[in-house]
Amino acid sequence: MKKLWLAAAFWFAFSIPAFAALSPDAIVQETSEKLIAALEANRERIQTDKQFLFGLVNDIVLPRFDFESMSRLALGKYWREATQIQRDEFVAEFRSLLVNTYAVALTHFNNQTVRFLPLQAEDDARRVTVKTELNQPGAVPIPIFYKLLNKEADEWQIYDVIVDGVSLVTNYRSAFAQEMRQGGVDAVIANLKARNAQYQSVVGNGATADNGATPDTAAKAVQ
Asked: Domains in the chain and their CATH numbers?
């Protein structure tokens, strides 16, 4: 699981505020390189300054990810049963959960590199998959596929990431479906709020690479 959390953290790399008319693979490559450069330049600060780390994640993530589509996919058929107020609240809390989870994973970046595979898509395609590999010293490369949607005016947004064959959105959908059957949308939202609050508490108390904690131990603390 540790490699999954670390690899998944890289899908937060692929969001930049305004690169009009760039192809989806160009967006992925350019912003990936930007994230890696930021991690390398701020390695020591990231390990100790969690406010800076969360700010880095927020600055990189928010502009390019389609959190509403991700939330809709994660809730599946239950999205239709939710009111607009519930949907808005779920989107906000789900976004916070993703940011919280992968901010911790970013503290474990250590000399990884990304290999970009040739894009295979029609010129007029509205949905594409950008395929990459995360290379780690002394380990087997991890395939990471990014699914992007052309929303409008060549604005590509990410709506799912598949890490080593596992879809992050599908993983969450399975967990949310069980919670929905037990308590409905409000129960899912309440659980997300509790997990986000606890995650902040865990991180604030030092659940980082410095004291031996890993993304797995931090994640288990909020499950």
From this structure: 2-218 (3.10.450.710)
134: DSSP letter? E
| 107: enclosing H helix or E strand | none
Looking up tokens 């129960």, which residue turns up?
187
The 3-class SS string of 179-210 reads: HHHHHHHHHHHHHHHHHHHHHHHHHHCCCCHH
Give yes or no for residue 2 having a pLDDT over 80: no
pLDDT tens profile 75-118: 999 999 999 999 999 999 999 888 777 676 776 777 778 888 88
Residue 188 in contact with residue 174, Cβ under 8 Å? no
CB within 8 Å of 4: residues ≥ 6 apart = 163, 164, 166
**73 with 159: CB under 8 angstroms?**
yes
> Pick the residue with more confidence: 207 or 87?
87
CA distances from 173 to 16, 81, 188, 223 (A): 26, 15, 11, 15
Question: Residue 86, Cα to own-chain centre: how many angstroms?
Answer: 22
Q: Which helix (H) or strand (E) is 37 found in, with range? A: helix 24-41
- Per the CB < 8 A criterion, the answer to whether 50 and 203 are in contact is yes
Distance CA 30, CA 22 (A): 10
| Cα dihedral 93/95/98/104 (nearest 10) | -90
Confidence at residue 87, expressed as pLDDT on a 0 to 100 scale? 97
